[in-house]
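Consider a typical record:
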Amino acid sequence: QDHVCSLPPVPFRGAPCSDAAGSQVPYAAIMQQVNSSLSGVLWDEVQKAPFYEYKDSVGQFHQVWFDDPHSISLKAAYVKSRGLRGIGMWNGNSLDYSREAAAEQQTQAMWQALTP
């Protein structure tokens, strides 16, 4: 089916299907790979999150889900609108902290998205 990618069942803290079946990818790698992906950036309205699809060198199909400044700002705005006390994120150290101009802009936009 279009845009359906199933994770193999890998037990992880009681969940039948989890991130234990996948791996974490740094944001810089995501930003580079999305431009050469099969799909370009796609949007899931339920999760309010972007993702893209690609095939690896042996033809295996993959999906990569990630947050960007837009998806984070939507989640931060939701937290604020509900009067919740905060928001968490998985790994801020996966951002690109190099001195490259594009990386600095992306990293700054990600952090700014946390404060609606």
In short: The two ends are 36 Å apart (CA to CA). The longest helix spans residues 69-81. The first strand starts at residue 42 and ends at 44.
